[in-house]
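If your schedule permits, I should be very grateful for your opinion on a structural question. I would ask you to consider whether the tokens describe a fold that such a sequence might reasonably adopt. Thank you for your consideration; the sequence and its tokens are set out here.
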Amino acid sequence: MILARTGAILYFLWGLLHVIAAYKVTLLGQTLEEGMLQGRIYQDAWNLLFFALFGMVMAVKYNWHNHATGYWFSLFVISAGDIGFIVTILIPGYLPLIPSALGPLLWLLALGFSSAAMLKEKRAS
């Protein structure tokens, strides 16, 4: 169970990091003129917040107990969010790699521990 719980903690930390990111994106939006660009930035903050909350709920409710539903939902939803960040923000260099790669690092570690937990459980049964 230590692998699953380590993965859950990492997913939860990923979520906390994204709550902070959502807040910072909201602050960025407040510096812009009212209009479509500001609205899109606020929508991005909203999406970040709900990716974060989703990840945190999955971590506590499902990943902590090594539940397959939580594993697969976390795998697809959080991966989609972080791959999008990597492709649209990190690779073009809009943010510095350090500390911006912390989110993807937490995601990959969480995924790795969760995957190891699922494989270990499958082998045991």
Summary: The mean pLDDT is 96. DSSP finds five helices and no strands in the chain. Residues 2-30 form the longest helix (29 residues).
